[in-house]
Amino acid sequence: MKRGLLIVVSGPSGCGKGTVLGSIVEEMGLCYSVSATTRSMREGEVDGVNYHYLTEEQFETLIAENKVLEYTTYCGNYYGTLRDEVEERRNNGQDVLLEIEVVGAANVKRLCPDAVLIFIAPPSVGELERRLRKRGTETDDVIASRVAEAEREIHCASQYDYLVVNGALEKAVSDVRSIINAERISASNKDEIISEVLNS
Ligand code: 5GP
């Protein structure tokens, strides 16, 4: 069985990555890895769907048991990718999608060099700020700190395999679709593809 891809997507808050991914996950048969976190559940979120919500003690036990592929602390909470969410599915041939921040993405690439890293950037920092203001859900202080964080994250974009600029949504969706299609037939999978062609 051909092992599934590990696709890692990062991008600053407000860059539209959720919208881009939402348009292709089902269509391309991708499987979201549900992360674990110690942050509290937000309204509308569901345990086991958005995250596995854990206590600090539970999270630290999983780390000690080597069940966490990568983890980081973000705004005072643990966030981590569970090994089982990724390994079982990839071994069953499913392509797994991680939506994680830049430190986690770099750790995944170190641990799984075959991971495909995609960074989704806004067309400009000014446009990102405009989108955050348009949401109307955050104070000026929070917007300023998100913009500063976005600038830090955008500096890390050069570590990624692909950089998609989300100016026009349709173009960004089509770029991500093309990346995944290309990776599915990439030369790094050639041995599996050749043996499939010869043996079926
Ligand atoms: P939020 O609290 O808004 O859901 O997520 C905060 C940040 O944590 C986002 O940038 C999100 O991509 C990141 N994140 C979510 N899950 C994981 C994870 O498993 N590992 C890492 N490293 N970051 C994560």
Q: Top keywords for this entry?
A:
single chain, 200 residues, alpha/beta, Rossmann fold, five-stranded parallel beta sheet, four-stranded mixed beta sheet, globular, binds guanosine-5'-monophosphate
Question: What this model shows, in words?
Answer:
With 200 residues, the protein is an alpha/beta fold. It has a single domain (6-199), classed as Rossmann fold (3-Layer(aba) Sandwich). The protein is built from eight helices and nine strands. It has helices at 17-24, 56-64, 83-91, 102-111, 125-135, 140-155, 169-184, 190-199; strands at 6-10, 31-32, 36-37, 52-53, 68-74, 77-82, 96-99, 116-121, 162-165. The strands form two sheets. Strands 2-7-1-8-9 form a five-stranded parallel β-sheet, sandwiched between helices. A hairpin with a 2-residue loop joins strand 5 and strand 6 (77-82). The two termini are 12 Å apart. The model has no long low-confidence stretch (mean pLDDT 93). Guanosine-5'-monophosphate binds next to strand 5, strand 6 and helix 4.
Furnish the topology, listing elements before pairings:
Blueprint: E1 6-10, H1 17-24, E2 31-32, E3 36-37, E4 52-53, H2 56-64, E5 68-74, E6 77-82, H3 83-91, E7 96-99, H4 102-111, E8 116-121, H5 125-135, H6 140-155, E9 162-165, H7 169-184, H8 190-199
Helix pairs in contact: 1-7, 5-6
This protein binds guanosine-5'-monophosphate (5GP).
Residues 35, 39, 70, 72, 74, 79-81, 99-101, 103-104 line the site of guanosine-5'-monophosphate (5GP).
